[in-house]
Amino acid sequence: MAKPQMLRVLLCAVVMSIVKGQTYTVQDIADMQNQVIYELFDYFHFSQERQLTTAFEKLKQIENRLLQAERALGIDGSNAPAIPGFVRPTSLYRPDPQRRPEYNRRKPPQASRATAFPRELPVGRVTAAAPRPPTWAPPRRPKTTLAPEPPTRPPYAKTCAEIHQMGYLLPDIPMYSVDPLNDNDLVNVVCEKSRRLDGTQTVYTVIGHSALNEADKEILVSGHEDPGSFSLKPVYEANKKQLKAMTAASRSCEQFIAYRCQGSVLMQRSLETGTTYGWWETIDGDRVESWGGAPFNSSMCACGVRRRCVNPQRPCNCDANKQSSDEGFIMDKQYLPVSDVRLGDTGGKKEKGFLELGPLRCEGLA
Ligand SMILES: *[C@@H]1O[C@H](CO)[C@@H](O)[C@H](O)[C@H]1NC(C)=O
Predict the structure, then answer these.
(1) Ligand 1 site: residues with CB under 6 angstroms?
(2) Which residues, other chains included, contact 282 with Cβ-Cβ below 8 Å and sequence gap of 6+?
(3) Is it true that domain 160-363 has CATH number 1.10.8?
(4) Is pTM beyond 0.85 here?
(5) Using CA positions, which residue lies closest to atom 10 of ligand 1?
(6) Which residues contact 88 (CB under 8 A, 6 or more apart)?
(7) Annotated domain spans of the chain
(8) In this model, does residue 245 exceed pLDDT 50?
(9) Ligand 1 atom closest to Cα of 297?
C-alpha cells in the first residue's frame, strides 16, 4: 500500500473541507496534522525496518552456509584458525523487536493536546457537534515477521535422496555433505539427479574411492599369476559404518566393475586352490566368486547367465583366454561397496588385464 498517496488524499480532504467551509475546528486540523506526521514517521521507519529484516535474513543464510562449509572442512567455530583482526560473532544477529518505537502514538493524551491547541480558538464554522468519526482510516500495517531462529545444528541427511526429500538439493550444485550416522562426522558425496533404467527420475548418492582416477580409470593388472594374487583395496570417502548406513538408507545400490583381459581368465577355477582366479570381496571382506551383472556368488559373469560368452561353454568372456572383456553392475546392496578385487593369471609375458571399479552409487529411499 503506497502511503504517500494516502497522505495526499488526506491533505486533499483537509483542503477540500476548509474550502467548502465545513465544520472543522483547530483541534481537528491539529489532529490531522499529527496524523500526517505520525504516518510519515511510520512510513519511513517501517520501510527501513523491512529493508533491515531482509538484509539480516540474507546475512543469516550466508552465515548458515559458512557454518556448513566449516563443518564440511572439519573446522568448528571452537577450533577455527585465528584470523588477525577478525572478531567472530558470538551469535547470529537479528533485529531486536524492542527497538521498535511505540506505534500507538496516533492518539496522544488528551491533556497535552488540549494545552497545545485550546478548544476556544475557532476556525471556519464552529459547531458544538460531537467529534465525528474519522473520514480516513489508517491503512492496516502488515505484520513484520522476523526470520525464525536458526536451528542449533543444520539438518543433515544420510543420503542425497534425503537431501532431496528435505528440499535442499539445488540444481547445478553436485557436492554435498551427508551425515550417515547423525554424529556430525560428515561425508562428502556427489548428488546426481538422473534416470533409472525404467526411465523414472531418481537421486543418486555417489561415493568415490582411492582407485578412481578420471584421467586413467583402468588399473593395469600384470605379473600376478596365482589366483587372487593381485589385490585392489579401494579406500572409500566414508568409513565402513557410514557406508553401511548409506546403503541401508537407500532403495538400491550399484557398483560398476569391468575387466579388460588379454590372455587372463576370470571365473576359471585353479586346479590347485579350487578357487576362481578372480573375485571381489564384500564390505565385510567375504569372498564373492562372480562378476558384475551375474547373480551373487554364481561363479559367472554377465555373459554366462545367458550362455553368450565368447566361448559359450565358459562362464565369462575372459575365460576364453583371449582378448575380450567382462563388465556389469554389482547390485547386492547389503554387500556393497566392494572392499577388494582380487585377480590373477597375468604372470605370462603376453598376459595382462585392465581393471575398472566404479564409485558406489545408491539411489532412492529405503
Ligand atoms: C561364495 O561361495 C563360496 C563357495 O563357492 C563360499 O566359500 C563363499 O563363502 C561364498 N561367499 C559368500 C559371501 O557367501
Answers:
(1) 282, 286-289, 297
(2) 288, 335, 336, 338, 339
(3) no
(4) no
(5) 288
(6) 77, 80
(7) 3-113, 160-363
(8) yes
(9) 1
